[in-house]
Design brief:
Keywords: Repeat, Signal, WD repeat. This protein has 256 residues and is of the alpha+beta class. It has five helices and 13 strands. 28% of the residues lie in helices and 33% in strands. The strands form four sheets. The chain has a four-stranded antiparallel sheet, with no helix packed on it. A four-stranded antiparallel sheet has the order 5-6-7-8, with no helix packed on it. It has a domain of 112 residues: YVTN repeat-like/Quinoprotein amine dehydrogenase (Methylamine Dehydrogenase, Chain H, 7 Propeller). A hairpin with a 2-residue loop joins strand 1 and strand 2.
């Protein structure tokens, strides 16, 4: 078993029915999600691990394969090995997958094996963890402080951020880190919208109001498609007063 936030992943081994499957249980909604039977392991599942940072789950089996799943229990990647792994675990951050094979531990770098959205997430996590080196402050002699004016001492003892100081150029690597982080956010938003679109759960934020003109234009287009030409209707009305009665004659000509 493995826990990923509120999701519980359980690997089932049933040799009598040759079923070696991974099932996801949502502990909040009390529901479960299965995958296609063709995505199951062909032999006993030997290892199960999860990566909370990336939202991934990995399983290993005696069929000498490692399968990587997303949090919706959908198969993302299948890695074929030349030996049988007995256990597996994600490294911190999910950049590597550790496999226990016999008496050895092997590392698999996932930075090039995962889908592009997960690769970008790994890069963003690496950029967030890296920071610029901070130089130690230069000690100030007390005699030098006494020789300075009050304003100079105040300016010297106050600390300033390099990013907030006017006229200071932002370091290039920090600027690139910010741009990549923003680009990653946009890509994640796009992937979420595409996923919602595939599931049929994407709705427009603004609904267009249908006016009378829109309805009239739609009706004209419908008639044009139906008759291949818009019907031209001409009506002429002749009225004569005959006592208190009014007689109307209408002549309707329709051009086909």
């Amino acid at each position: 078993m493995a826990i990923l936030k509120s999701l519980l992943f359980v690997a089932f081994n049933d040799p009598s029915t040759a079923t070696y499957s991974l099932i996801q249980y949502n502990l909040e909604t009390q529901t479960r999600e299965d995958h296609l039977p063709g995505d199951d392991h062909q032999d006993q599942v030997t290892g199960l691990g999860c990566c909370p940072e990336l939202g991934l789950v990995a399983t290993s089996g005696r069929d000498r394969k490692v399968r990587i799943w997303n949090q919706h229990n959908q198969l993302l990647r299948t890695l074929c090995l030349n030996d049988t792994p007995q256990s597996l675990a994600f490294s911190k951050g999910g950049a590597e997958l550790l496999l226990g094979v016999r008496t050895n531990v092997y590392r698999i770098n996932l930075s090039r094996l995962l889908p592009m959205s997960y690769q970008l997430k790994l890069q963003a996590m690496f950029l967030e963890s890296s920071s610029l080196p901070v130089d130690p402050p230069i000690p100030i002699l007390s005699s030098a402080l006494l020789a300075m004016s009050e304003e100079d001492r105040r300016r010297l003892t106050q600390t300033h951020s390099i990013l907030s100081s006017p006229g200071v150029e932002v370091p290039r690597n920090l600027q690139e880190s910010k741009e990549k982080s923003e680009e990653y956010t946009r890509l994640c938003t796009r992937d979420q919208e595409l996923q919602l679109l595939l599931e049929g759960r994407l709705e427009h934020s603004k609904k267009t109001k249908i006016s009378k003109k829109n309805k009239r234009d739609a009706m004209e287009r419908y008639l044009q498609l139906l008759y291949r030409d818009i019907a031209c209707i001409k009506v002429s009305v002749h009225s004569e007063m005959l006592g208190k009665a009014v007689r109307e004659h209408s002549i309707i000509k329709i051009r086909e």
